[in-house]
Amino acid sequence: MLHLSELAARLAQVKTIAVVGAKDVPGRPVDRVGRYLIGRGFKIFPVHPVRRDVWGLPTYARLIDIPEPIDLVDVFRAPQFCAEHAREVLELNPLPAIFWMQSGISNAEARTLLQAAGVFVVEDLCLMIEHQHL
């Protein structure tokens, strides 16, 4: 069970966020959330295999291409892709503190892999809505 006080404490430590599946298409949830996070002062690293400029920011093909440590990985991909992204997270050094699967996204394999490595996993919640609540 996710406790809001624990979530608030963890989010208070977050400065850098990788947004996997980043697209700056107006009206899309990923666009609203990405712009919200930028507006709240987080350093955002868009991740998309093809796009090179999302939200006017350098965009990376893969998480491991990001040149700085990441505090939180925010995933906007279908559930069947989450385990692949979890394995990529495990290649990062240092590991991010949080792996966040957006509303409607859950993956047991990703959760198991990351929790075993000490990464805090959130599933099926919107980062923007939870941040606003906190």
From TrEMBL:
Occurrences of domain CoA-binding (ranges): 11-105
UniProt cross-references to SMART domains, sorted A to Z: CoA_binding
InterPro entries (alphabetical): CoA-bd (IPR003781), NAD(P)-bd_dom_sf (IPR036291)
Superkingdom classification of source: Bacteria
Pfam families for this protein: CoA_binding_2
Protein name per its UniProtKB record: CoA-binding domain-containing protein
UniProt organism field: Desulfonatronum thiosulfatophilum
Organism phylogeny: Bacteria, Pseudomonadati, Thermodesulfobacteriota, Desulfovibrionia, Desulfovibrionales
